[in-house]
Amino acid sequence: MIRIIPVDEAEEPYRAPDLGWDGYVGDLILNGLDHASAPGDFRAEQGLATQVLILLQTDRRVEDSELRDGEENRGWIGDSFDLMDGETALGSRLWLLRRRAIYDGIETDVEDYVLEALEPLIEQGAAASLDIAVTADRPANRIDYVVTLYGRDGERVYDGKFELLWRQVNGVVHPLAR
What residues pair up with 160 in beta bridges, in sequence order? Predict the structure, then answer.
């Protein structure tokens, strides 16, 4: 997750641009030309949703023991040697499920992987708590999961539904579109 720390506290802090996800590729979202204050500029209105997408849709580097025969490790190579004290690798291990059959207990593994990926949001105070609901649709060869994040006041601050298709790991179509 990207942490932006303003150099001068009196200035408005930079807000990370929104990231759109079409199920295959993430891309920056632009404001329309009719936007009141920043026409054609990067849209920066849904920072929490963007961070959720980055954390869930970025492959996390894993230990070699977690790989199946012939499988290559993914994720940022720097995570294997460049983590500072107290820092954890970013991204999710959901990619490990891509070429596996839906097995008994896969719901627990998906829940664990999503929780692990989103833990930085809790640690950094972007959300106070989260719920994850996972369901397996075995005939359709698909796993669906819903992520709900809550603020300190207990109010829901994010709610997103994702799916894992066993053809390719996909997310929701245009989750930040209005």
Answer: 147
Nearest to 94 by CA among 172, 1, 175, 169: 169
Length of the chain: 178
CA neighbor of 93 nearest in space, from 118, 70, 123, 122: 118
Record the pTM. 0.71
Rg, the chain, Cα only: 17
Contacts of 159 (CB under 8 A, 6+ apart): 146, 147, 148, 149
Query: Mind listing the pLDDT tens digit of every residue in the chain (178 residues)?
Result: 344 344 444 444 456 677 777 767 777 778 788 878 777 777 777 778 888 888 888 888 888 788 888 788 787 766 666 667 777 778 899 888 877 788 899 999 999 999 999 998 898 888 999 999 999 988 888 888 999 999 999 999 988 888 775 443 444 445 555 4
DSSP state of 88: -
- Please state the φ and ψ torsions of residue 7, each to the nearest 5 degrees: -70, -45
* Strands (E) located in the chain: 19-21, 26-28, 129-137, 142-150, 156-165, 169-170
- Tell me how far apart the alpha carbons of residues 136 and 142 are, in angstroms, rounded to a whole number: 6
Q: For residues 93 and 110, is the Cβ–Cβ distance under 8 A?
A: no
Cα 63 → chain centroid? 20
Query: Please, what is the end-to-end C-alpha distance for the chain in angstroms?
Result: 24
